[in-house]
Automatic annotation (TrEMBL):
GO biological process per UniProt: isopentenyl diphosphate biosynthetic process, methylerythritol 4-phosphate pathway
EC numbers: 2.7.7.60
Organism: Allomeiothermus silvanus (strain ATCC 700542 / DSM 9946 / NBRC 106475 / NCIMB 13440 / VI-R2)
Site positions for Positions MEP for the nucleophilic attack: R133, K189
Protein's UniProt name: 2-C-methyl-D-erythritol 4-phosphate cytidylyltransferase
Residues that span the membrane, as ranges: none
Gene3D superfamilies xref list: Spore Coat Polysaccharide Biosynthesis Protein SpsA, Chain A
Stated role: Catalyzes the formation of 4-diphosphocytidyl-2-C-methyl-D-erythritol from CTP and 2-C-methyl-D-erythritol 4-phosphate (MEP).
Amino acid sequence: MLLPAAGSGERLGRGPKAWLEVGGRTLLDWALAAFAWADERLVALPAGYSLDHPGVRFLPGGRTRQESVYTLLLEARGEVVLVHDVARPFLAPAVAQRVLQAAHRHGAAAPVVLVPDTLIQDVDGFYGPPAPREAYRLVQTPQGFGRELLLEAHRKARQEGLEATDDAQLVLALGHPVALVEGDRRAFKITYPEDLLLAEGLARVWQE
Ligand code: C5P
């Protein structure tokens, strides 16, 4: 499992998210616990930090999420790798298993959820054309890939200057399809301060 956890947490304004506490433990600890079963756990940390945790390798992250994942990927050994954002502490084991199975079967897989709201384009501050929300999905992590495939996708992206907010986009850019599996709305990404209220509430009822 590759965990890019080197973000600065700018939008949240509470320092690096890896150290943010929810339900009395850091987001890093939540993620490491969710993948306690994984053969390999590689974590990208913000520059200047290092940690010691049994069975976990820590590496300095890059300037962007993509660079952090690439750094981890170069050190990974598994045939299939899962890439998970540290900002999503509430990962149900069933989601990780669905992704893993689909990644083994199709080479690449990502969990998605439906779009609950009306979806439109913002045209200079005015209500633009609506998008058919039933045709769209919100993409979560963990995403799963054959390691060689993901490495090829990252190398091509680096050569071509392609930057993406997740790994599935890079694999898609290679022309390789990415299977979708059912995600979980509880695996939302903690991004804005109000997300912390929801996270604290979920932490109280969460069972691993
Ligand atoms: O900024 P964003 O929310 O898209 O970050 C997604 C994930 O990528 C987070 O887990 C964050 O810690 C990680 N990240 C990283 N290295 C960076 C920037 C973000 O590992 N330079």
